[in-house]
Specification:
The complex is a heterodimer of chains A (about 55) and B (about 300).
Chain A lengths: L2 H39 L5 H10 L1
Chain B lengths: L22 H6 L3 H16 L8 H4 L3 H32 L10 H31 L4 H31 L7 H22 L3 H15 L2 H11 L19 H46 L1
Helix pairs in contact in B: 4-10, 5-6, 5-7, 5-8, 5-10, 6-7, 6-10, 7-8, 7-9
The chains are: A mainly alpha (about 55), B mainly alpha (about 300).
Chain lengths: ~55, ~300
């Protein structure tokens, strides 16, 4: 293997790991948002949210 | 005046600055003088600035406020991180080759920041563990939990890129010297903490256990840092963070520093996002419990 190959693999794996990390955070974010929206649709809200919505009306 | 702020969590002691008797002094059983010193220290560091206005740490004790601050700050963090990586990568690939290492010196521009972050992330977790045990800060455990997978990823990168540099330069992928072994132990500690957090469903129960383990494990960080000075290792001694200044030529030092800054910002960006996810996860769990109670 040439020295360039070691450098290319190092940068490639680092890029993939960072992308995987970002992907994991974003997927987790999407899942949590979906869960909160689902609960909100079924009328299950935090007391503070319910209160503020009632104040708006 | 202090007690008027509604920002404080119920779990953070709200103590009157001018009062003669502290609430926890009554319960602690400490002699009055020691109790005053102890409570003053807690006040200064964790709960309240001397001016009577809530300190940053206290203001962030409210998860809703934390989320609103994150919503404003996060786009900037993402933008600055992207710019720093663009500049850092450009500098890394235009830097001159080392007279001995040749092109493999470029691996250092990702290996060294990853290794620094592996240790910094654990330090953030140790501070969070202190926040859980000493100040019972509501976001401290959230912070420690969110940091563990990120720390594990950076430690993995430090080990892997180090190995990829070691093969052409040392002639071996791995040696069980003190530096490499202690970083490998750090990686195992991250995995252990992630497993522990996943094994215990209730964050309230796992927070204390996890915090104690994190603090005990912190002993490994100075071992990693000083292993190259204390023992005879194949890994070279420090060349940037030295009392007599860096021993690297400026043409390689600046790309390294820019990349280190980019990695650090990437860590904080991901950490803040993961913390936000963890707060939402806990909210979902709490709302589901609330719904289950209402259904009974």
């Amino acid at each position: 293997m040439t020295h360039f190959s070691y450098v290319a693999i190092a940068y490639g794996v680092t890029g993939l790991t960072v992308l995987a990390l970002i992907g994991w955070v974003l997927l987790d974010q999407r899942a949590r948002r979906a869960e909160l929206a689902e609960l909100d649709e079924s009328g299950i809200r935090r007391r503070s949210d319910t209160k503020s919505r009632a104040d708006e009306h | 005046m202090v007690g008027k702020h509604k920002l404080h969590s119920r779990r953070i002691p709200v103590l009157p600055l001018q009062g003669r008797v502290f609430r926890s002094q009554v319960n602690s059983g400490l002699p009055p003088a020691r109790a005053i010193v102890w409570n003053s220290a807690k006040l200064y560091i964790g709960a309240m600035s001397i001016s009577g206005t809530p300190g940053l740490v206290t203001r962030l004790a409210n998860p809703t406020r934390f989320l609103s601050i994150v919503a404003v700050v996060l786009p900037w963090m993402v933008g600055i991180t992207a710019v720093l990586f663009a500049v850092g990568l450009w500098m890394s690939f235009t830097a001159p080759e080392d007279y001995q290492q040749g092109i493999t010196v470029r691996i250092m521009f990702i290996h060294v920041p990853a290794a620094w972050l592996a240790m910094m992330c654990y330090t953030v977790m140790a501070l969070s563990a202190l926040g859980t045990l000493v100040w019972r800060h509501p976001l401290a455990d959230v912070s420690a939990r969110a940091a563990a997978p990120i720390g594990a990823a950076f430690t993995f990168l430090a080990l892997l890129t180090g190995s990829l540099w070691g093969k052409p330069m040392w002639g071996t992928w791995w040696v069980w010297d003190a530096r490499l072994t202690s970083v490998f132990v750090l990686f195992l500690m991250y995995l252990g903490l992630i497993a522990l957090n996943r094994a215990m469903d209730d964050p309230a129960r796992s927070a204390k256990v996890s915090a104690i383990i994190i603090l005990v494990g912190y002993v490994n960080i100075p071992i990693i840092k000083f292993s190259v000075d204390w023992w005879n290792t194949l890994h070279q001694p420090a060349s940037v963070l030295r009392l007599d200044g860096p021993t690297i030529h400026a043409s390689m030092l600046y790309p390294l520093l820019v990349m280190a800054l980019a990695f650090t910002l990437l860590f904080f960006t991901l950490h803040v996002m993961a913390m936000r996810n963890e707060i939402w996860r806990r909210r979902v769990a709490s709302l589901r419990r609330q719904a289950a109670r209402a259904a009974v």
